Amino acid sequence: MEREPLLKVRGVETYYGKIVALRGVDIDVHEGEIVTLIGANGAGKSTLMMTICGSPQARNGSITYLGEDITNLPTHEIMRKDIAQSPEGRRIFPRMSVMENLQMGAAVADPAHFHADLERVFTLFPRLKERQEQRGGTLSGGEQQMLAIARALMGRPRLLLLDEPSLGLAPLIVKQIFDAIAELNRTDGLTVFLVEQNAYHALKLAHRGYVMVNGTITLSGTGSELLSREEVKAAYLEGGRH
Amino acid sequence: MEYFFQQLINGVTLGSIYGLIAIGYTMVYGIIGMINFAHGDIFMVGAFIALILIVALGITAATPLLLLILALVLVLVLAMALTAIWGWTVERVAYRPLRGSFRLAPLITAIGASIALQNFVQISQGARNKPLQPLISGGFSLSDSASGGAGFAVQISYMQILIIVVTVVLMAGFTLLINKTSLGRAQRACEQDRKMASLLGINVDRTISLTFVMGASLAAVAGLMFLLYYGVIDFYIGFLAGVKAFTAAVLGGIGSLPGAMLGGLLIGLIETFWSGYFSLEYKDVAAFSILAIVLIFMPEGLLGRPEVEKV
Predict the structure, then answer these.
(1) Residue B164: phi, psi to the nearest 5?
(2) Alpha carbon distance B280, B42 (integer Å)
(3) How close A125 comes to chain B (CA, Å)?
(4) Which pLDDT score, from 0 to 100, does residue A238 have?
(5) Hey, how many other C-beta atoms are within 10 angstroms of the C-beta on B33?
(6) Rounded to the nearest 5°, which phi and psi values hold at A97?
(7) pTM, whole model, 2 decimals?
(8) 111-150 in A: which are within 8 Å (CB) of B?
């Protein structure tokens, strides 16, 4: 018998008004895995990410976390179940310092762990330690991305949702960030669900992957399987993205 | 010169009251981007609640000093709590159901809530002025003989001292609350990005409610001060005081907490000095003209932040 996934998405349909964004999505994320979702712009990847967090809520289908149906819970209650998201566009609080952004990340976490968690993210991203007092809005793109991930980690998540952490960043920074994700998964057993356009890096990193086209999952498999598939290569790797 | 100092003291007193009300406007604007036009009437409700409590407790000028102080503290705390319930209710009934609706909708319900509160108080309490005998009288007389005794003595009443001290203490406490506590941080987070705040587990609706509660309780303090200072209130005092405090918030930079305090002080001073040196009739014109001039040259207000932000 297969063990129950940490996160189970079944037949999820999401609409923006009358426009359909997700047309029945099924995804499993098991404890300890890195799972990636790749697809073109507008395929619905970020919508799935936000639907898992209840904003917007799915119109049909179900989302189960640790065996509990969370489909219709309000966002802040879902996020209190040790799920954290580093969202699309990073969404750093621009007029708060780096430290305050991190404190916000720990807003609903047990305060007893605050200092240990702070040390952990500063070890992972030493740059943030140097910039503690700086306002979030004045950081560079790469620093903001690090801060967004660090802020999510401050909530001590069991499941980390990462939406396009490589977007708009220099290759060296992308490597740093992907290394950090791999390390968190390896050493802390953190489960990661990663949305990416940077398909090559994401599939290299992930244990398993899904391909999304126009609001549905068209392919799934292990990272290396997907990397070797002709249609993946053509659409998302050498062939460029369009 | 004595005359100048006298006006300064009067202006700071009036400005304190405006500042306390202005904080409610600026915080609500900061967090949900709307002008809560019912806030002036919440101030009026606060003044009425304070008056009812004072009468119910039987406080008069004859009450022994220590007892008087204790009773007034009790009135202050109860008035803050009861007015906060009104502020919470207005948000719950008139604004929350319209969240996510088009921008003008809550503005219209705000005006509706304002009229509803005025009419409710008018009907339940009567339309006539409600006087209160002065509870705290006396004060200091400064520089009476120092200037040769040739006429004008600067008076600073105990009441004025009380208003200024209470305002300074509350504003300092409030600034600390917003800048240093996790509750204040959650409020600032909701102000900057509500969706992200909810992604971090913050209950945004609750945080917004708390903002209304805080604004209303500060307005209640202003209401009690107004009542004690002027000794007369009616159901309509919220309108002009509300418009003035709103002007103060815009002058200081709407959304900015220190801006609301500074704006309140300035509006109080402008009004008082204008009435003191020019004409009493045109004091409102003076205050609004200065607002217009400041906004022409500094559209974001004195301490507001410019719209452009690197994100």
Answers:
(1) -65, -40
(2) 27
(3) 20
(4) 61
(5) 13
(6) -70, 165
(7) 0.90
(8) 137-138
Q: Tell me the CB-side half-sphere exposure of residue A173, using CA atoms within 13 A.
A: 15
User: Contacts of residue A105 in chain B, CB cutoff 8 Å?
Assistant: 200
Which among A140, A157, A174 is the end of a domain? Answer: A157
Residues A191 and A123 in one domain: no
CATH number of A232's domain: 3.40.50.300
Domain count, chain A: 2
Tokens of B83: 């007015």
Could you report the per-residue pLDDT of B87-100, keeping only the tens digit for each? Answer: 999 999 999 999 88
Interface of B with A (CB under 8 A): 182, 185-186, 188-189, 192-193, 195-204, 305, 309-311
Check if the beta carbon of residue A201 is closer than 8 Å to that of residue A178: yes
Please indicate whether, in this complex, the C-beta atoms of B199 and A75 are within 8 angstroms of each other.
Answer: yes
Which residues in chain B are closer than 8 Å to A107, comparing Cβ atoms?
182, 185-186, 189, 200-202
pLDDT in the model for residue A40 = 87
Q: Are A114 and A66 part of one and the same domain?
A: no
Domain boundary residue, one of A100, A131, A157: A157
Rg of chain B in Å (alpha carbons): 20
- A239: helix, coil or strand? coil
Pick the more confident residue, B239 or B61. B239
Residues A53 and A127 in one domain: no
Q: Are residues A146 and A168 in the same domain?
A: no
Evaluate the omega torsion of the peptide bond into residue A5 and state whether it is cis, within 30 degrees of 0: no
pLDDT tens readout for residues A128-178: 999 999 999 999 998 999 999 999 999 999 999 999 998 888 888 889 889
Q: Which residues, 6 or more positions from A85, have their beta carbon under 8 angstroms from its beta carbon?
A: A49, A53, A79, A152, A160, A161, A162, A163, B199
* Same structural domain, A11 and A115: no
Please state, in angstroms and as integers, the Cα–Cα distance from residue B212 to each residue in B12, B28, B219, following that order: 26, 7, 10
Whether the CB-CB separation of B191 and B305 falls below 8 Å is answered with no
Domain extent at residue A119: 90-157
What phi and psi, each to the nearest 5 degrees, are found at residue B263? -60, -45
Q: Are residues A61 and A114 in the same domain?
A: no
